[in-house]
Amino acid sequence: MIARVLEASFGLVVWGILVATALASASSEVSQGVKYRRGKDIDFEALVIQGQLKRPEVSVVTGNSALGTDGLLRLRENFLDQMAQDTGHSLEGEVR
User: Fold this and answer.
1) d(CA 11, CA 18)
2) Is residue 89's pLDDT more than 80?
């Protein structure tokens, strides 16, 4: 019984190697026949690009004016309050 399983698995391995070899040789034959057109060389230094500057016509400000926020982001010096909140401590060092 074990001999049959080993014989069958050996046959599958040999078959897989043969198929892989056939596919590899077929793909190499196809790649040798492919020819590409010669590309164009574009000299971007010689090109002069002209355009116009357009400014946005709409400004979006987020924030809740009822809470007293103006929607602007403020640069923080540190994040000690956030780190203390994450660890369960207050800024004075007391445990919640």
Assistant:
1) 11
2) yes
